[in-house]
Specification:
This protein is an alpha/beta fold. Helices cover 41% and strands 15% of the residues. The longest helix has 22 residues. It binds pyridoxal-5'-phosphate (PLP). Pyridoxal-5'-phosphate binds next to α6.
Length: 448
């Protein structure tokens, strides 16, 4: 399938319309560039050309920029704000915690226990939990735990699966075949202990385990595939990997940073009926405050620290961090999980996602465009049906930029990620209707 080629004239027109709509944001961006490294800012800034809009206020499913424009937010903080912006119960919980402890407390209080009990309730695979500050930290820690527990060094990951930017797992991340594209600055020999395999081929996994007999500590995967199913895994693949790892004394790590408390309250493992040895959580489980966590079987997690005050040394794995189990993350996280337990947020988000995908597909058919959308629970993926091939990457990037700018230019604008959007539990049918109109407007521009 052809990727539309945009004339300079068309591209310039779109950019100029965007500049007309967002003059203050442009000024804010010029100022920001003087002080902040290009990647030293929220992720949205790095993905958005020619410059991002700057937010004045965020509420529910909407954000308002400094130029007075309104947007329906289908980015919702990379899916973190699953209850929308300013969720009242989470804010209340944070306020009460601040009244009690102030802003941070690196002493013990009972919130971390309450939070961990909730995780354990919904993720029975997490018998014991270590709380850190981001998904990136948590995947790195999961690898350290697996290596220590098994006494082996090698880890198998899958092409394109993303586990943060750490120097342990960030090889061939996000886009299959990208290799070190996103990870300069790490010595090549660092990757000797990482085996990257194509998805969906259990024979390849079996061969790698055989060839590296007694050297593989773990297999790590995004359990629904790259970016929560953008490139889905074949039905049954996860179960086959589970059986194979079990038979060979290899641990299975599910990175549920993006799927946990989103595709189901118990994440992908609940849907698949597959129990990993180690689970990595992050994003929304801190209710919007930075968080990451590693949970696992009792015996596996026993390698993390010791509680015996007479111990001569700590460890063997000894993850430290000044902000670990931050009380505000614990308080907001508990309130977040309680909201999911009591409400229909996951069901609503999944339903809205289906409505949006259906609407986009109807528009594309009407416009006779080779554009389509599909869902993985509360996530909508969209784009051209182009094979995932890195040689197409620059064209795809340009196409995605056009789509995103086109969506922002609608009224109200729509905020999206390249190729996918996250649905929250508070998006309404009216929001979706307006988003479909925005897609129609935007695909119309691409087709001109
Ligand atoms: C599956 C997955 N793992 C790990 C991470 C890294 O998490 P964080 O951004 O909290 O470091 C992400 C972030 O997008 C993710 O989607």
């Amino acid at each position: 399938m052809e990727i539309p080629q945009f004339s300079d004239e068309k591209y310039d027109r779109i950019i100029s319309d965007y500049e007309k709509k967002t003059p203050k944001s442009k000024k804010f961006y010029e100022e920001a560039k003087q002080h902040i490294a290009p990647l030293g800012v929220p992720a949205y800034m790095i993905w958005h050309r020619p410059y991002p809009f700057f937010v004045e206020k965020a509420e529910g499913s909407r954000v308002f920029d400094v130029d007075g424009n309104e947007y329906i937010d289908l980015f919702i903080d990379q899916g973190i704000s699953f209850l929308g912006h300013q969720p009242p119960k989470l804010k209340g919980s944070i306020a009460r915690t601040m009244d009690k402890y102030g802003i941070h407390l690196e002493l013990c209080e009972e919130l971390a226990t309450k939070w961990s009990r909730k995780i354990n309730k919904h993720f029975p695979s997490c018998q014991k939990i270590k709380i850190v500050n981001s998904g990136n930290e948590a995947t790195e820690l999961a690898a350290q735990i697996a290596r220590t527990y098994t006494g082996k060094n090698k880890i198998i990951k899958f092409q394109g699966h993303h586990h943060g930017w750490n120097a342990v797992l960030s090889y061939d991340s996000l886009a299959p075949g990208s290799g070190t594209l996103f990870t300069e600055g790490i010595p090549e020999n660092h990757w000797e202990n990482l085996i990257t395999l194509p998805i969906n081929d259990i024979g390849e996994v079996e061969d790698a385990i055989k060839k590296n007999k007694n050297e593989i500590a773990a297999v790590i995967m995004e359990p629904l595939g790259v970016s929560t199913g953008a490139i889905p895994l074949r039905d049954g693949f996860q179960k086959e990997v589970r059986e194979l790892t079990e038979q060979n004394g290899v641990l299975l790590i599910f990175d549920e940073v993006a799927t946990g408390f989103r595709v189901a309250i118990g994440g992908a493992q609940e849907l698949l009926g597959v129990m990993p040895d180690i689970t990595v959580l992050g994003k929304s489980v801190g209710g919007g405050i930075p968080i990451g966590a590693v949970g696992g079987r009792d015996d596996v997690m026993a390698v993390v620290g010791v509680l015996d005050p007479r111990a001569e040394r700590f460890g063997p794995v000894f993850p430290m961090g000044s902000f670990c189990a931050h009380p505000l993350a614990m308080a907001a996280g508990i309130a977040f999980i309680e909201e999911l337990e009591d409400g229909d947020y996951i069901k609503n988000a999944t339903l809205r996602a289906k409505e949006l995908a259906k609407g986009i597909n109807e528009v594309a058919t009407r416009l006779k465009m080779s554009f389509s959308a599909y869902t993985t629970y509360a996530v909508v993926h969209f784009g051209l049906a182009v094979e995932q091939d890195m040689s197409n990457a620059p064209d795809m990037l340009e196409f995605n930029q056009m789509i995103r700018l086109g969506l922002l230019l609608s009224d109200p604008g729509v905020v999206a990620l390249p190729g996918h959007v996250y649905m929250s539990g508070v998006h309404t049918p009216e929001d979706i209707h307006k988003c479909i109109l925005a897609f129609e407007n935007c695909l119309g521009i691409c087709k001109e």
